Amino acid sequence: MIGAFVLVVVKPGTEEKVYEVLAKNEKIKEIYRVYGEYDIILRVEVGNIGELDSFHDKVLRRINNIEMTETLIASSYRG
């Protein structure tokens, strides 16, 4: 299992529309509206890196109001 955090910037005024689309995806475990440089943060869980690629290409890139994303793959401090 791979966990990732996706930082999302959306077109101004479209936060709720984007949230509604993203909230329907089963790979997204948590979604938060945030203030600052980014508008939304997602916590995503996928089975492998190929699924993360697919999520990025087939979900995020198809939402017109998303302007930019930054994906951070989560790691553990445990060995």
UniProtKB/TrEMBL annotation:
SUPFAM superfamilies: Dimeric alpha+beta barrel. Residues 6-74 form the Transcription regulator AsnC/Lrp ligand binding domain. InterPro entries: Dimeric_a/b-barrel, Tscrpt_reg_AsnC/Lrp_C. Pfam families: AsnC_trans_reg. It comes from the Archaea. This is AsnC family transcriptional regulator. It comes from Thermococcus piezophilus. The lineage of its organism: Archaea, Methanobacteriati, Methanobacteriota, Thermococci, Thermococcales.
